[in-house]
């Protein structure tokens, strides 16, 4: 039996917060191993990276999600009782509800709303002078996804809801004010949507037929019971929040177009948008890691995994693993030309199977919205990127250019 390397610190929580996305990868390199042990939040934790590790991690016979995610993450990012923390038949039932929403027609409807809203905003962006892309796209996505989901917002509420959705995304991996804002934002949003679900169910404000609100409000579990109002609100937020989070990927795509200008013409004229978007998802930081617990004790690759042990899969590190991605620190979209993407190689939103596993149900939406945004950035408008701070601090969770990417001299084409 091989000896699993052990991180020397008594507890690595502060080191994790200081190192951010590179915490697991740096230690894997240090120990010459894609698996090691540490303690995070005083809990013994095994950390993994790479394709074999991802294949292992998404084996539901060996791992479970129940009682795996830290409470601070549930209380801000995912909500308590949502699909991310379920296992077995309960997870399969809830995941089937989400996958019923992810049809090509529904995704196309969301994408068309996004395109229409982007073009409708262009005159205002032209007149505004400097525009912060991250802020604008965040508000745009909030309007669009709420309308698509069946909970349209009056103009007076868009900024407030966008701020709250962003606060939930910002809150899990920090201490202090950013975390507190995430807690308050989650409470406000759950109350808002639980009330909306109640009104849909009693008929005082019916949900639009076939809308996301309708699907979730009327979903019944294997026993024939409706989801409790709060849980239904959590799951509705598990549609709204991830779609708004695509504003980060769209900002990264614009940053990549700025840093690699030759790709503007290639995505516009050579049909290389898919390659470009997949490389943005691989190269730039999104989720740092995924979490599970060992369902029952087992041995793997000469290492022992005891029952109940918390395990972190390094998503960022797997997307930058040199055994999978030659020259991983170079932005090279051509690496995806003609390449079939393995579900355990490219894992920015999780790995494994969409329908039965814990891979993000909204990944297709993410890719579609990113492709549309890249098309709009390269074909529907011109703009300048003035001098600004565009550095990405990988110690910050989640990462974003400090400026949010300021654009000037926007013109419709």
Q: Element order, helices and strands?
A: HHEEHEHHHEHHHHHHHEEEEHHEE
How helix-rich are the residues, as a percent range? 40-55%
Broad shape:
globular
Structural class of the secondary elements?
alpha+beta
Radius of gyration: 21 Å
**Percent of residues in beta strands?**
5-15%
Q: Are there runs of 5+ residues with pLDDT below 50, and where? A: none
Please give the count of helices: 15
Tell me how many strands there are: 10
Alpha carbon gap, first and last residue: 64 Å
- Going across the major beta sheet, what is the strand order? 1-2-8-5-3
Can you describe this structure in just a few lines?
This protein is α+β, with helices and mostly antiparallel strands. The protein contains 15 helices and 10 strands.
Describe what you observe in this structure.
With 413 residues, this protein is α+β, with helices and mostly antiparallel strands. Helices cover 50% and strands 11% of the residues. It has a five-stranded mixed β-sheet with strand order 1-2-8-5-3, sandwiched between helices. Strands 4-10-9 form a three-stranded antiparallel β-sheet. A two-stranded antiparallel ribbon has the order 6-7. The relative contact order is 0.17. The model has no long low-confidence stretch (mean pLDDT 96).
């Amino acid at each position: 039996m091989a000896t699993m390397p052990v991180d020397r610190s008594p507890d690595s929580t502060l080191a994790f917060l200081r190192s951010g996305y590179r915490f697991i990868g740096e230690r894997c390199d240090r120990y010459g191993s894609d698996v090691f042990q540490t303690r995070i939040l005083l809990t013994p934790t095994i950390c993994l990276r790479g394709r074999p590790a991802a294949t292992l991690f998404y084996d539901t016979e060996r791992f479970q999600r129940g009682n795996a995610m830290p409470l601070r993450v549930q209380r801000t990012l995912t909500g308590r009782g949502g699909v991310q923390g379920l296992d077995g038949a309960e997870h399969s039932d809830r995941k089937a509800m989400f996958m019923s929403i992810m049809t090509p027609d529904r995704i196309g409807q969301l994408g068309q709303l996004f395109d229409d809203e982007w073009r409708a905003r262009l005159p205002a962006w032209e007149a505004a002078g400097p525009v912060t892309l991250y802020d604008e796209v965040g508000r745009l996505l909030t309007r669009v996804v709420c309308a698509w989901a069946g909970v349209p917002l009056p103009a007076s509420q868009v900024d407030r809801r966008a701020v709250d959705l962003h606060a939930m995304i910002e809150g899990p991996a920090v201490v202090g004010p950013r975390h507190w804002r995430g807690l308050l934002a989650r409470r406000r949003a759950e109350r808002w949507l639980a009330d909306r679900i109640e009104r849909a169910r009693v008929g005082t404000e019916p949900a639009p037929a076939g809308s996301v609100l309708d699907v979730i409000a009327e979903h019944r579990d294997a026993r024939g019971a409706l989801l409790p109002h709060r849980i239904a609100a959590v799951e509705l937020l598990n549609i709204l929040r991830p779609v708004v989070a695509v504003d980060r990927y769209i900002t990264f795509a614009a940053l990549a177009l700025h840093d690699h200008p030759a790709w503007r013409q290639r995505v516009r004229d050579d049909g290389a948008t898919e390659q470009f978007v997949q490389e943005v998802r691989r190269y730039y930081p999104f989720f740092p890691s995924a979490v599970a617990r060992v369902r029952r004790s087992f041995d793997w690759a000469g290492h022992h995994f005891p029952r109940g042990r918390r395990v972190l899969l390094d998503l960022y590190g797997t997307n930058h693993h040199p055994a999978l991605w030659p020259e991983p620190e170079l932005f090279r979209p051509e690496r995806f030309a003609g390449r079939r993407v393995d579900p355990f190689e490219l894992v920015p939103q999780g790995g494994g199977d969409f329908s039965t596993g814990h891979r993000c149900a909204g990944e297709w939406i993410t890719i579609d919205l990113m492709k549309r945004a890249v098309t709009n950035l390269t074909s529907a408008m011109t703009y300048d990127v003035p001098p600004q701070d565009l550095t990405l601090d990988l110690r910050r969770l989640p990462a974003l250019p400090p400026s949010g990417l300021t654009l000037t001299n926007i013109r419709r084409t």
